[in-house]
Please model this.
Amino acid sequence: MIRNHFIARKPGTDIAERVDLVLRKLGNPEPPLNLAAVRQLLGLDLRFYPTDDNEFSMEAVSKIMVSRMHVYRRQLLLIEAIRRFDLSALYLSKWRSIFLDPRLPDKKHRWSEAHEIGHTLIPWHGNAAFGDNRHTLSPECRRWIESEANFAAARLLFLGDRFGEEARSREPSIDTVLELQRLFGNSITTTLYRLVESAARGRPIVGLITRYPSTESADDNHELATRREHFVRSPAFARHFKGVREDELFKHIATYCKQDYWGGPVGESELVLADDNGVRHRFRFETFFNHYDALTLGVHVGFARFKVAASR
Model:
């Protein structure tokens, strides 16, 4: 699973200020954010990758820089570069254009677009960041660049501090995630991610975005082998529960999830997790299935004085 990374204070403050300036110029809009208005303010265009090579001839140029690789008309058309390096989104500064893969589900377009806008707002990323993937950056460099762009995208889509204020006025739960998802117009997955990271205020909270938790062995097919699964921690959880392994937690979650599932809420239970000092804590876990991802939220509720078994 991919663990979330926290942005250092100085770059985080700088990115937040840049995003907040955009929101102020838009008049501090009410949710949901209109990304077309953001693009208009920043002079950006939105396009989709063509699905046919012939459709892309109008975009062919003699020389384009993509992720520090020169792409020549006669050697490698841009569409071929996109396919070869598996780019789901790309920003080309020459055209001030964001390109999205039309094969992405509609609900993922919004996040991908905001992520590329995030790159444009962070000057130290430069043109080399746009379209980068695992083939063109060291893993460490890629991790931080992508984390910063994700931070900018989240702050933009969730309207700066507005989301945190709304989230902290409610008890963290799947119901709260669904309510805030409807209010801010983003996906359930990104809303869960944002709630865990920004709504805790010192409370240990953890989230998992995974395949459906099952006590049976996972199917060994290509989709499961290549899908991205996430382990999201609040700052307090990351500080005090470093020893919690996501694979073991996934197994615990599987013990309470229904095995005849269709969608929606699929189970909840109280689980006990030990912190890094060996102190045992009670967490309330609940899982929601959106027909593709299982979204799990675990919220700290107190100290454990005795062992609490997970129940179905």
